[in-house]
């Protein structure tokens, strides 16, 4: 697409968010980049001037999210592409994760994306165009031991976004779930962690032993071209994997689900009963 667009990118100070922010600016678009610490974005602001609006934002604060989107609309006239990238990854077995940790994980990864999505929708509906790119994970489609709380947030994001896509299609708004597989971005190292319980040492061992499930770490910088391609596609997909090896893992996952459901279909039929007397 030739005309410059306005992007709103959360979690823009590090990892994939930082790479994507720079790539979008380099190609000439405008970016509202949000982060808890906007000082990290100062070098980009120096290079790109008025095309970058850095904003301090805690995505769990709904009022602050609404204010940030309003500031973006006032500055650039509207948000064309929303990238919900802010998030962290809590490692821990279900029993290990503290109550406040579990709530914080959902507040950032799910509700943060929900609030920003809701905030941009009125403007997108009015213009009858827009792109919403939700950064999920292959963990939004499968679940591995010691990542239950993190992956629960991504499963929630997946469900909400699939429903949303059907709701807003009539307004020319496209929703895409981006599902990265394995990229060395320092996400786990920068995230809060649960207190290990020796009773679940086997679960953590299974998680880290399984990190070689055919997944080869990808180049984070290469994701920028893929992101721009998704944003530019006339008819973008609802879901797209970033990285390789995911299709084989998902074929195994979904085949196993269907096999298990088929094996226990006699109970499904038992539960149905015979209300029509047939």
From TrEMBL:
Keyword Ribonucleoprotein included in the entry's annotation: no
GO MF: oxidoreductase activity
Keywords recorded for this protein, A-Z: Oxidoreductase
This protein's record includes keyword Oxidoreductase: yes
CDD domains: 17beta-HSD-like_SDR_c
SUPFAM superfamilies per the UniProt record, alphabetical: NAD(P)-binding Rossmann-fold domains
Matching Gene3D superfamilies: NAD(P)-binding Rossmann-like Domain
Classification via Pfam families: adh_short
Residues that span the membrane, as ranges: none
InterPro entries xrefs: NAD(P)-bd_dom_sf, SDR_fam, SDR_oxidoreductase
Superkingdom, taxonomy of origin: Bacteria
UniProt cross-references to NCBIfam families, sorted A to Z: PRK08263.1 (NF006114)
Family: Belongs to the short-chain dehydrogenases/reductases (SDR) family.
Protein name: NADP-dependent 3-hydroxy acid dehydrogenase YdfG
Source organism per UniProt: Amycolatopsis pretoriensis
